[in-house]
Amino acid sequence: MVLEHGDLTDKDEGGNESLSNGAEKPRRDLHDDAPQILHLRRTDVHTIQTRQNDPGWRESYARWRQSFSQRFAKWDIAPDLAKDIGSARWLRGLGTLIALSVLALLCWPDFAPVEAAPAMRIDERARDEFRSQMIMPLALGADSGRHMGATRFVSPLNDAPERPSLEFVATLARGDSFARMLQRAGIGREESAHLANMIDKAMPLSEIEPGTQVDIVLGRRPAKDAPRPVDSLSFRARFDLKLAVERRDGRLQLAPHHIRVDDTPLRIRGTVGSSLYRSARAAGAPPRAIQQYLRQLGTELNVQRDIKSSDEFDLMLDYKRAATGEVEPGDLLYASVIRNGKPVKQMMRWGKDDRFFEASGVGAQQNGLMAPVPGRITSNYGMRRHPILGYKRMHAGMDFKATYGQPIYAASDGKVVYAGRHGGHGNYVKLNHGNGLATGYAHMSKIAVRSGSYVKRGQVIGYVGSTGLSTGPHLHYEMYRNGQTINPASVKFVTRAQLAGSELSAFRAELANLQSIPAGAALASLPPDTTMQGGPEREIDRVEQPKKID
Questions:
Q1: In terms of C-beta density within 10 A (0-12 exposed, 13-18 middle, 19 or more buried), how is residue 281 classed?
Q2: What is the number of alpha carbons within 13 Å of residue 172 lying toward its C-beta?
Q3: Fewer CB within 10 Å of terminal CB in the chain, N or C?
Q4: Of 432, 305, 429, 292, which Cα lies nearest the Cα of 349?
Q5: What cofactor is needed (predicted)?
C-alpha cells in the first residue's frame, strides 16, 4: 500500500486502485509521475542547502562587526597617551584626542531660551492693542494708555505743537556743580550761569548739600532751535532757607524765604529696665544718639556693671524743627544717669572741640587704653616661638582673637602716620598719640583711614584680617615709646581737663539751662509758617485744583 496526499486508495491484485467508497479508479503507471517526483525532490534539497549556506542578518552583522573591529584595531588610533610620549604612535593618539574634542565642541548644545507658544493667535492689530495697555511704553518713553497706541487711522504730523511749559525736578549730584546740573535739565548755558551767580549771592553754592532737589518750570521756547527759558525755580537751600526764582516782566528775580526754626534740644528720659538701648529706643531716642550716649558713659562707667535696671537714663540732643514740618536731629548734648532721684553721673558737651565735661567742670576721664577689638588676648608681649618661621623670636606686641572683618578701633586720639602694606605686618596702621607714644595695628583685611588724618578714641581705623605673616584672622597690636616697642599692658592713658574762671561759670550756666528743659518739650506742636503756605513743593503734589464756577 502506498500513501499519497489526498483520499486513501486500495490496490487490488491487478494493480487497480479502488476508492474507499467501493468505486474503481483507473490504473496509473508510476513511470509517468517519476520525472515530476524527481524534480520536486531536487528542489527541496536545493532549498535546504540554501538555508544552510545563507545565515540570518544577525549572524551576518556579527561577523561583519568582528571583521571591522579586527581591522580597526590594526590602525591603533587610540593608544595610551601615558606611554611612549613623543613617538609616532603617541602623536597619532593625540590627534585622535584633539579631533574628538573639536567634535564635542561643535556638538555643544544651545541653551537659548525657548519661547512658549501664545495661548491665542495674535495679529498686528491685537498686538498693538495689548501694547497700548502695557507698562513697557513708560520705560521706553513712548505712548502709554489705551487710546495712545498709533493705529492705521493715525497719520503723523509734519510739525507737532510743543507743550507751553515743562515742570520737572532736577537733583544735585555729589561732585556736580549747580550750573552744570541746570544745563543737564535743559536750561541754556548763559541762563544757567546767570542763575548760579544769582543764587551764590544769597548763599555759597558749596553749602548746598548733594541730593538737593530743585523744582524747575520751563516756558515756551522763542524759536525751534533755542532752549526753553526758565519761568520759575525753587529749592530748599538750607534747613532754614528756601530760595525761589521767578520771571517777572521778562527778568529773573530771586526771592529768599527764611523759614522759622525752633532749636529747643530734645530731652528723653526713662527707666533702664532690662536693656538700656531698647528702653531708649522705645522712648523715641534716635539710634545715633543712643550710641553716643553709651560710648560717652563708657569712658566713665562700666555700663553693664555700674548701671542698674532701676536707674533712669537722661539724655539731650541737638534738635531742630522747621515751621514747614521737617525735623533734623543732631549730636548728643547731655548725658546723665539718675538713681533714686539723684544724678550718678552728669556730662555735657562744651567748647569748640565738642568735648564732654562732668558737672564739676572736669573733662571726661579716659582710664587706660581702649581695647582695639573686643576679644581676648591670645599671645602677650615677649619671646615666643613664631608659628610660621618656627624659631624663637621677640613678639613685639599683643595678639587679640577676633573674627574676619571685625572693626578695629583706635586706642586713643592721634594722627595716622602710616597706613598701608608693611612687610610681615601686612596691612598696617600706625597712630601717633603725642608725648612719644604711638600704637600699631597689623594684619588688617582693609584699612579705613589715610596717612596724615586725625582719629579719635574709638574710631574705626580698619578691619580684622590675616594679611602678612599670619596663620589666621587676628589683630597684632603694638605700642611704641620714642620709636621703641614696649609692652602695651604697661601703659595707661589718662586725659583730663579742668575748666576755671569765666569759662567754668559759662559752663555751669549752660548746664543749668539744659537741666531746666522738660522732657519732650521739643515735640510740642509748632505754629505753621504762613509765609510758606503758597503751594505744593513736589511735582507729584502739583495737581490742578478744580476751578470754582460762579
A1: middle
A2: 22
A3: C
A4: 292
A5: Zn(2+)
Lateral strand order in the sheet of 213-218: 166-171, 213-218, 230-238, 241-248, 251-258
Q: How far apart are the first and last CA of the chain?
A: 139
Spatial distance between the Cα atoms of 209 and 517, rounded to a whole number of angstroms: 31
Which spans in 107-151 are helix H?
Answer: 124-132, 136-140
pLDDT for res 113 = 75
Paired sense of beta strands 454-455 and 460-464, if any: unpaired
Rounded-to-integer distance, Cα 479 and Cα 491, Å: 9
Question: Can you tell me the distance from the alpha carbon of 499 to that of 506, in angstroms, rounded to the nearest whole number?
Answer: 10
Classify residue 430 as exposed, middle or buried by CB count within 10 Å of its CB (0-12, 13-18, 19+): buried
| List of residues 6+ apart from 341 with CB closer than 8 A | none
Asked if 199 and 205 count as a contact pair (C-beta separation under 8 A), the reply is: yes
The domains of the chain, with CATH numbers, are 166-258 (3.10.450.350), 262-365 (3.10.450.350), 377-492 (2.70.70.10)
Q: 302: closest CA among 344, 359, 260?
A: 344
Mean pLDDT computed over 138-163: 66
The larger pLDDT score, comparing residue 32 to residue 392, is at 392
Whole-angstrom distance, CA of residue 54 vs CA of residue 44: 15
Dihedral over Cα of 247, 253, 256, 257: its sign: negative
pTM: 0.47
